[in-house]
Amino acid sequence: MQSQTSILLNRANLSSLPSDVMRPAYDVENVQTGIVHIGVGGFHRAHEAMYVDRLMAKTGDLSWGICGVGLRENDRAMKKVFDEQDNLYTLVEKHNDGARSASVIGAMTGFLMAPDDPQAVIEKMAEPEVRIVSLTITEGGYNFDASTGEFITTNPDVIHDIENPKQPKLVFGYLVAALKKRKESNIKPFTVMSCDNIQHNGHVLKKMLLAYIELFDQSFATWVNENVSFPNSMVDRITPATTSEDIVTLEAHGVKDSWPVVCEPFDQWVIEDDFCNTKPSFDVVGAQFVNDVAPYEKLKLRMLNAGHSVLGLVGSVAGLSTIHESVEAVQLKQLLSVFMEKEVMPTLDKVEGIDVFDYRDTLLSRFSNPFIKDTLARICLESSAKLPVFLLPTVRDNLAAGRDVSISALVVACWAYYSDKHASQDGKPLEINDVLADKLHKAAKENEVDALSFLKLDEVFGELAKNEVFAGCYHSHLERIYQNEPVLLLSEELAK
Ligand code: CS2
């Protein structure tokens, strides 16, 4: 990309952008809202919004634009950018060979901050043209107890929302208010589409929403159960946090965008074909509609996401900082490869058209893209919500079948060390960004008195501490890490 005068990104300036920056191939002024999306972060902008952009360009159907919703105060920064840039943003794909391609996405039609005007959000969701409400609210947003899978009824926000149905705080309150409004006005319900990294994400969302409604209105719960669909989906695209360097590089290339999104070239979206209202033809632009998403979800969560956690936690303790740096360390690359083959593959179901060894090799190549600079800090963020979804189900399956769990145990041991020391083995400070940060730290601090103290955090690990095989393996790794045996050496030994 060569340098030139930069143009502020907005509708009026679209035609003045550098010629190699792709522009919406449709009239952005005419895009209508057909989707309301809760949780507009980098991932949504690089994935669903990009698919909508492709769909509009390819079919000319402009009825599937997306109105973003922010539920939390920290979504305000995104709203400001949307307001300043007429809802436009740049998507920059970074290829393994250093090439970059930039496109302006025109799929967003607006952004509502729910805390400012909850009613506006409810009304928007109740509009008949809105046929989908989609979500990326992260694993934690589903409000389930990781060890039991049940809805947490004691959450003060849940109690608040039941008492204040017109001013909800959580997603469940908004869905209920809008679905009720549609039912009362005889408008077909919208499909509720989860785009989070949770196995059976649609079913989990349905279970949580119904559990919430059952707390106060059994007959409405029955209606939702019978009339609203919650398709499961598998979503995939590595999207690191945007850095100031990304903004400066794009500006040097001629586009002044205060919050572009950067990602890898790869994207995948497999959606269960279960829509209670009209569905967009995402299949004409690369997504797949299937009857059963489960094997795809399992493959992706257990290979990619857990693979990330292996590199994230072991790599952090080893003093590394990014995914590509970690996969470049031969011991870790080998560890990851053996983890996938020995601990994950035996737990997977056959996925039509996918060879798991090819899938693994593609992952290793995606992880090795040096331009993505995906930080281990991002990967380790909210590990207490991620590991129960990404890694622990694999551990449980392997224990039940009498198979090896030693690499998984190393990952958990590294997490315990990380949570105790807040530092790598060579003393580099590490941050814990996790809703359970204090509990994790407190439990890990006790490791010296009770070696299984961290593992006994049952809201994360359930009964795992009571499993002698896993606990034994974990304990022996932990001791060696505390004795300062480099985790890279330990990794090498385990990957033999
Ligand atoms: C990552 C995911 O958050 C994580 O730990 O594994 O964000 C991952 O990059 C995406 O799921 C890729 O599709």
What do you see in this structure?
This protein has 496 residues and is an alpha/beta fold. Helix content is 45%, strand content 11%. Bound molecules: D-mannonic acid. D-mannonic acid binds at residues 197, 236-238, 304-305, 308, 379, 386. D-mannonic acid binds next to helix 10. It holds the Pfam family Mannitol_dh_C.
Q: What are the SSEs and their pairings?
A:
Elements: E1 7-8, E2 33-38, H1 42-46, H2 48-59, E3 65-70, H3 76-84, E4 89-94, E5 100-105, E6 108-113, H4 118-126, E7 132-135, H5 156-163, H6 171-184, E8 191-194, H7 201-214, H8 218-227, E9 233-236, H9 244-252, E10 255-256, E11 261-263, E12 268-272, E13 288-290, H10 294-317, H11 323-328, H12 330-344, H13 356-367, H14 376-380, H15 383-390, H16 392-400, H17 406-421, H18 437-445, H19 458-461, H20 468-482, H21 487-494
Parallel strand pairs: 1-10, 2-3, 2-7, 3-6, 4-11, 7-8, 12-13
Antiparallel strand pairs: 4-5, 9-12
Helix pairs in contact: 4-6, 7-8, 10-12, 10-13, 10-15, 10-17, 12-21, 17-18, 17-20
The protein binds D-mannonic acid.
